[in-house]
Amino acid sequence: MSTPVKHFAPLARLLHWLMALMVIAMLFIGAGMVASVSERHQWLLNLHKPLGIAILLLVIVRIIVRVTTQTPPLPADLSAVQALAAKLSHYVLYALMLAMPLIGWAMISAAGDPVMLGSSVRLPSIVSANPDTFALLRKAHAYLAYLFFLTILAHLAAALFHGWVRRDEVLDSMLRGKSRD
User: Fold this and answer.
1) Longest CA pairwise span in the chain (Å)
2) Is 141 within 8 Å of 107 (Cβ atoms)?
3) Structural domain includes residue 4
4) What is residue 1's predicted lDDT score, i.e. its pLDDT?
5) Number of domains comprising the chain
6) What average pLDDT does the segment 72-96 reach?
7) Quick count: other Cβ atoms within 10 Å of Cβ 76?
8) What is the pTM of this model?
9) In-domain check, residue 48
10) Is position 100 within any domain?
11) What single-letter DSSP state applies at residue 1?
12) Residue 14 maps to which CATH number?
């Protein structure tokens, strides 16, 4: 049995912070799209689509990194409820990072629109064009965005709780990658 690590692997930390920025940007871009009917809407949509596909690709890499590298254990004195909440919230975050881009891609496909990555790369449709499917996927995408936002807030609150209240190594394991000596 190998010795438990105290910090996440450098690639895991890089992916975590890169994707955190991308996902937060996507939530704000999505909110801006919903609130806008101006020409800005199309500009935001043209930014939202390729960023969503980039998140989809990166989350696949991130899952591979997560299952192939050792992760720090949770503190031994953490209650069973808190440990379960930590594990479940991570599953929810990963599921949403996969589901949101796929649902968005399917939604655009159901609308009969192409998913363009720039001016020349067009992704194939993953569902047939259908207005009822589009409406269902649009609602799902919106509701899951709220769930995503709330889950991110809970994740952030837990991280700050570990860093500022418990003062254990949980936050540092993702921030610095090394112990404060």
Assistant:
1) 59
2) yes
3) no
4) 58
5) 1
6) 95
7) 7
8) 0.90
9) yes
10) yes
11) -
12) 1.20.950
Neighbours of 123 (CB within 10 A): 15
Q: Could you identify the residue written with the tokens 């001016």? A: 119
Q: Could you report the per-residue pLDDT of 105-117, keeping only the tens digit for each?
A: 999 999 999 888 8
- Cα–Cα distance between 52 and 127 in angstroms, integer? 17
pLDDT digits (tens, 9 = 90+) for 45-71: 888 999 999 999 999 999 999 999 999
Q: How far is CA 39 from CA 18, 19, 36, 43, 60, in A?
A: 29, 27, 8, 7, 33
> Residue 93: which of 177, 20, 8 has the closest Cα?
20
Q: Encoding tokens for residue 145?
A: 């965005």
Domain with 96, as residue range(s), is 10-175
Question: What's the confidence (pLDDT) of residue 2?
Answer: 73
In angstroms, how far is CA 11 from the centroid of its own chain? 16
Burial 124-155 (b: 16+ CB within 10 A, else e): ebeeeeeeebbeebbebbeebbeebbebbeeb
For residue 57, being part of any structural domain is answered with yes
Structural contact between residues 55 and 26, judged by C-beta atoms closer than 8 angstroms: yes
